Amino acid sequence: MQHQTSLPPAEEDLRTQQAILGMLVAPDARRPWSIAEVEREIGEGASTTDALACLHAAGLIHLCGEFVFAARAAVHSDRLAL
User: Fold this and answer.
1) With left for phi above 0 and alpha for psi between -120 and 50, is residue 59 left, alpha or beta?
2) Is there a domain that residue 39 lies in?
3) Do the domain assignments include residue 2?
4) Domain presence at residue 1
5) Structural contact between residues 5 and 12, judged by C-beta atoms closer than 8 angstroms
6) What is the pTM of this model?
7) Full residue range of the structural domain in which residue 53 is found
8) CATH code assigned at 15
9) What is the pLDDT of residues 19-76, one digit of tens each?
């Protein structure tokens, strides 16, 4: 997801959150992901850190030390959307 865009910051934040959550709920996703792996896929920096914090605050992901995985409700919700 490392690319240059001219999106408003709020929309870019949402897209980063969507990308991370999409990785974590994918049917073939390995669980858990290390935060370093997420950063390699999405990009290092404040936007990834902020997105992880927002997803955690919303209860969509769990953080356990240096690992992150989707909450059961997030996985179930993603399956309902199919």
Assistant:
1) left
2) yes
3) no
4) no
5) yes
6) 0.84
7) 9-80
8) 1.10.10.10
9) 999 999 998 877 899 999 999 999 888 899 999 999 999 999 999 999 999 999 999 9
